[in-house]
């Protein structure tokens, strides 16, 4: 009877979670479509009115030319995210890219592994055909080469023209992996690469040490690699495989999960190939080359064991939380302030415990250290890389303390907010949105610089 009640409760939770995610996904998609239709109708209505023709004045041209002299600030999206050109005119960063004259928002795989996304980010900036690496491609069973960028978005990128990166959620870990690849000279034909190509990294709710939410969504806590038989991620897996197999061109142009290098379309693998993917015999979910295994605590430990904090790069992070302690118990900090998409997970993550019959993910692991969260990530995971080795760090109480900083140290600040407060919907964050992004961009432009050699961001 107890076992039946537990199963019924799990099924009910799965149904509610699935429904909430589907509804929110449809809301985002319909919002993007509505925005595009509105813009198209507006352009059609005014296309013959001379007063609506936009002319670039000499002053405007001078401004554009000056902006090209600035090192770009690259905004890197997280899981299920998208860059410029996807979902019509919708902005993953809620329009924050408009706050500076030189901002890039690359479109990377929304569910591809952190390794694959780091490779894609490099070629997005430098140009050329994405090379995932021969050894990695063979091990994971996908094509070695991917999308072609005829011209990079910042082809002059090198140690003398470094870049500021701002990563949300998994996007912050993508930049860390990319910087390590640069240090290891992992890109064929670019042996002059170095870690100093990255001037600064700012993390916004960054996924540095994994999250217990992955286990609630369906990853097995015993190994951090395999999926539970019935879970939210299984439904996601089936949906993604069918989406890529159907290969509806206009739909994939609008939104793409990023698995094109796996050739999962019906033209490439046919019906029986689809069956093999659905049964978990082939494809990214079979090889583990997708983002969820990277976001488990075990997966993050594997990544972090090979990643460094470099002495000439500036590191900043904002760790979000929507929990508080009441009489020794961790509980959600209110109801109205937490997005409906995240509320159930905030509550569940407050009380999640690693199975007693499984080995803890690392020595010294304690459940209570991981209870503070923002609905997607544990707050302990967002401050700085901690496991398996803790990197140099410094707690910051106010933004003014961010101005007198040293490279090679993670400066982190706690922010009251859920995981999606500063993306998608600008109105939710209100004045906090402007305060946060204004301070980040101002710091990139004025405060972060190298002393040897002297390289100011605006030079």
UniProtKB/TrEMBL annotation:
Keywords: Hydrolase, Lipid metabolism, Secreted, Signal. One of its GO terms (cellular component) is extracellular region. InterPro entries: AB_hydrolase_fold (IPR029058), Lip-like_C (IPR056304). This is Lipase-like C-terminal domain-containing protein. It comes from Daucus carota subsp. sativus. One of its GO terms (biological process) is lipid metabolic process. GO terms for molecular function: hydrolase activity. Residues 72-184 form the Lipase-like C-terminal domain. It comes from the Eukaryota. Pfam families: Lip_C (PF24708). It is found in: Secreted.
